[in-house]
Design goal:
The structure is a homotetramer. Chain A is of the alpha/beta class. Chain A has 2 domains: 236 residues, Type I PLP-dependent aspartate aminotransferase-like (Major domain) (Aspartate Aminotransferase, domain 2, 3-Layer(aba) Sandwich), CATH 3.40.640; 98 residues, Aspartate Aminotransferase, domain 1, CATH 3.90.1150.10. Helices cover 38% and strands 15% of the residues of chain A. Chain A is built from 14 helices and 10 strands. In chain A, the strands form 2 sheets. Chain A has a 7-stranded mixed beta sheet with strand order 1-7-6-5-4-2-3, with helices on both faces. In chain A, strands 8-10-9 form a 3-stranded antiparallel beta sheet. In chain A, helix 2 runs parallel beside helix 11, helix 6 packs parallel to helix 7 and helix 12 packs parallel to helix 14. Chain A is globular and about 60 Å long. At the A-B interface, helix 1, helix 3, helix 5 and helix 10 of A face helix 1, helix 3, helix 5 and helix 10 of B.
Amino acid sequence: MNFRSDNTAGASDEVLAALIAANDGAQSAYGADEITRRVEHRLREIFENDVVVFLVATGTAANTLGLSCVTPPWGAVLCHAEAHICVDECGAPEFFTGGAKIVGLPGIGCKVEPATVASQLAKMPAGAVSTSQPAALSISQATEAGTIYAQDEIAALAEVARSRDLAVHMDGARFTNALVTLGCSPAQMTWKQGVDLLSFGATKNGCLAAEAVIFFDKTRATEMAYRRKRSGHTLSKGRLLAAQMEAYLKDDHWLDLARRANQAAKHLEEVLFSLHGVRIPWPREANEVFAVIPDGTFGRLQAAGVLCHPWPTDSLPPGSAPRKGETLYRFVTSFRTAPEEIEAVRRACLEATPRPDRMIAGS
Amino acid sequence: MNFRSDNTAGASDEVLAALIAANDGAQSAYGADEITRRVEHRLREIFENDVVVFLVATGTAANTLGLSCVTPPWGAVLCHAEAHICVDECGAPEFFTGGAKIVGLPGIGCKVEPATVASQLAKMPAGAVSTSQPAALSISQATEAGTIYAQDEIAALAEVARSRDLAVHMDGARFTNALVTLGCSPAQMTWKQGVDLLSFGATKNGCLAAEAVIFFDKTRATEMAYRRKRSGHTLSKGRLLAAQMEAYLKDDHWLDLARRANQAAKHLEEVLFSLHGVRIPWPREANEVFAVIPDGTFGRLQAAGVLCHPWPTDSLPPGSAPRKGETLYRFVTSFRTAPEEIEAVRRACLEATPRPDRMIAGS
Amino acid sequence: MNFRSDNTAGASDEVLAALIAANDGAQSAYGADEITRRVEHRLREIFENDVVVFLVATGTAANTLGLSCVTPPWGAVLCHAEAHICVDECGAPEFFTGGAKIVGLPGIGCKVEPATVASQLAKMPAGAVSTSQPAALSISQATEAGTIYAQDEIAALAEVARSRDLAVHMDGARFTNALVTLGCSPAQMTWKQGVDLLSFGATKNGCLAAEAVIFFDKTRATEMAYRRKRSGHTLSKGRLLAAQMEAYLKDDHWLDLARRANQAAKHLEEVLFSLHGVRIPWPREANEVFAVIPDGTFGRLQAAGVLCHPWPTDSLPPGSAPRKGETLYRFVTSFRTAPEEIEAVRRACLEATPRPDRMIAGS
Amino acid sequence: MNFRSDNTAGASDEVLAALIAANDGAQSAYGADEITRRVEHRLREIFENDVVVFLVATGTAANTLGLSCVTPPWGAVLCHAEAHICVDECGAPEFFTGGAKIVGLPGIGCKVEPATVASQLAKMPAGAVSTSQPAALSISQATEAGTIYAQDEIAALAEVARSRDLAVHMDGARFTNALVTLGCSPAQMTWKQGVDLLSFGATKNGCLAAEAVIFFDKTRATEMAYRRKRSGHTLSKGRLLAAQMEAYLKDDHWLDLARRANQAAKHLEEVLFSLHGVRIPWPREANEVFAVIPDGTFGRLQAAGVLCHPWPTDSLPPGSAPRKGETLYRFVTSFRTAPEEIEAVRRACLEATPRPDRMIAGS
């Protein structure tokens, strides 16, 4: 019952099988192979757009290489203060951009609001040489809190960004988990709302190591091949990435994997919520459940073998901060999370008093 | 008959099987898994040294992350003028080091000589703030010309480097190909001769994407975890790298793969040399054959399906430059090169007049 | 009546005369001259410490070169959210450090408190590779709000910093203005409280362009000569910097200049405070006065020729934010500010209704 | 008799007087002052071109800031192997560009030839991601050997550069010394031959610290204000730079200063050449004299108080390398070099046997 991360699982059987199948025969090195070509074609189909695609092995590479193409060294990237690029990449965006400033903004449930972005932009006037120049807005979909931006929320953020010529970047490490919840098309969740470039994650959702940087605005992609190469992210045996991605995107496999993870999270949320004293600060929307849990209750879960991480509380809604004797935890499910695991959590919970009432904040 | 690169092959069956086996079950993310621990242990055994190991997916990452740990931004890395780090990584070492200078030195067959290193050091005095400060010497084993440094040659270079406190780095993209030729132990080819850190390549010799940065001098490794993370080279599902490397290093698998590639190159060299007008500028020592070939002869090889790259001629021995109507080519074999492929080349060659005499330069 | 900045004045007569005197004769280039040696000696005397000194022409260079010597690319510098290094240098610290993270902390009157620093450190655990590693604490003395850290406040901050091995940097662009207010020795305001390195500003207080990076901890200074050279801050005719600094530090000249500027600010504060509706959010301590001024009143000041900048309100004490029809302004005085200028402001104020009561926040 | 550098002199009387005159009154900070505006106007007049101008205090800043505007991190700057930017700036161009490659080319007398540039370009194919992409050609006028490119030589180099869309940069640390020798207009020596940007040096020729980065191609200048600010090269009291430059460029002052320095070098060359055994490897063209001097002869000069630097011999014409007992020296004169100093050298020389014949290589 490891809910620490969706990185703890391996690859799906289909993805693994594709990797094996791709192994035979000689293929051109450094991404000049045929499988890579097919993946590019497939992504153009999926996004209904003549996208430019670059495959890399890690999410950090995808995010920072993409951002470095739209942010000069004297630029600033606006994002949520708990965004992965802001606090979890050891300064990778600063490194890849040559020293741009990553500006973390507040926002409940790790979502930034247009007014917050506008207010920050006002503090960094265009052309004022003493301040880093805002160059990109980066939003995570789903966010680090497992919440999701609705289509019109993305559009509203993009509009503010556009008012100052900022590029709009989407960190889609959990893109598909958000997509299946919204039930819209990939195009509707991205470029149709004004997104310029996307880190399209596949690793957390069934691949071993495969992410795609997708440019909807081609003109922003011209530097990417050089940047990828000189950062060591151009794999010599490029088929490793392409074969995974091809299998991942075949038919509805990627969507199915995300649905499985989300469904597991939904069940887990119900189980946790049934516990007396547990509060859910925002409703689950993707494959992550956040819960404020009394320490005693959590002790029983731990004793039963439940693994998960405590979490920073800065983005909690007003009034919902953990009280003495409570802690905020994050639970992440994956396509591999088995119903039996949730069931086991439920059994562990039974030992605690079930709650008399039932209400999830915001739902 | 693709002799363009040892990157065109996939992984060995054993490596692939290990990847599949490692896929099941949850593993801690970001290299904190058990397989990674076992690989570290195995490398300590192989190198007879309490090495510090970092796995990455590409040779560029291995070389440049390692070098960045021993070279400050105002430092200089001395290497051969045709070294991969000097001309084939799109400025990656400059990027990772924060702007160090990569100083390319001349040398026949892509080997640098101690006197050349000493002479360059004299031009860059210690403490003179106007010049980048020499910080590392990087040698490739096997070199980009497929040649090999003997143990005492490595020791002599390390001695010059040590005289100015330079770290000694070995680019071992084809480490094992050199090792089986020399027939010495990994320790004898590295730290016993003064090598401080090694890019231990496995991708070209049977893995899909797996390299290890190995520090023999532990004190130089303290920055590495941060550097790897912020450059996007810390894989979330670290088992991907570790499982490959574990299978690669099991028993003599890595050595066997290199022996196969070298043997194929040996046969190819014989075949090419048998052709009238073909000159071999330096004897094959690893898995690469270089040959100056009359254009007409090469046309017949091409017609038969032989693929290979023309090559820069700067490192040729005096007097052996291609004459009008000749071109220098590089042929690379891999563990996958089949005897039938060499045989097919032989047959293609038969259509050309076989040479009357037989002599390889330097042999 | 230009109160926009202490950069609008030229140099003091004494400083200028020294520059002229130093012009004759040949001097060794690049800071190897005798005047530079004498300045180093004088600073060792002033700071009662065997300091290592590097002269540069700008405050941005002083701050960022100094910080880059104590902060690795994966490091973080903690400072106030309105610190000059955080918002006014176009990303210079990120550039010089190779991509470190500048973390802005809240605090009233631009002063950070030990508890705030400790709380931020807790979010960035030592050795956690996903987070930039805290490497330095930078405080401004006087601050960007013209406030001053008392000796024991500096000591308390340094103690928190020391608990995680952070270097303590002081941005002393207005060092002397703070010093004469505190009335302590330079040593007492710096290394005796735990400061490791100091940007010792002279430009704003009577030089044309001269700052000194002063290392109290010599071991941190080893990289500085290379960093200064490669950032273009090693002046060929180094006497330009040294001659200014020598005259500036002669006898009590530097102290006298700061006293003049502070005295002018004191008078200006009194004048502004006498105006009906004007609020002083924190008492003046150095050569800057901040005042929340009714827009109508400010219009009259402007009409009389008063020049100053509106200012961000994030650091105001709770409850003192400008109300509708009010704006926060910063007034800066310099050694050149003439009593007549203050008198002219007073006359302009007379046209407005003088206030019936009198109270300065915190005083 | 200090011939070590043209940096050993101070400023001309005119420049110094202007600095004093500019000191009074308040001026807008950070280069927004009126004197800066006038200097920009004057430079547009001098260059007969609507140039964009940025003043900085050092030649390193001028060169590297300018180059960083035309060279991406994955770019390469081609220049002579002894160019100041290649060997004398501690990796400054690598720092400012974010890791571009500075490629040093051979050439007699520190001049690069079009064919050499073309040959290097052929090794770095456009669009090949494994190689840094050539982005700029930088030539020094006068060169580090004191030689000068004729107008048609500049045009020929620019033509090769243009064939691959390289920007053409001129390092004009000794611009005026070359200009007065060629006797052409500033326009003819720069943009009319294809130069895109110029480091216009004034420090070595009569200022204390003042250089201008001049963009003939405005579109390349858009990043400059941010780059200058974040590298700490935007002086707060910008009048310091502008006042020097204004006086320097007034009427023919700058030309007169250079003529004086060149004339002194001419006399010094005659004096040195008159000595038995002294060889002049290339004729003096600006304010530097290079001479291969027998060690005994040099000893007598030293005894008489002559100071100068020994020099690398890589750029000597074939056959002119110093023989045993000889050394190559560089002598630099400045506007301050007095006829008496040359006369004193002459007297020192008299003690050595004067040469029977007279011939300067290439003249």
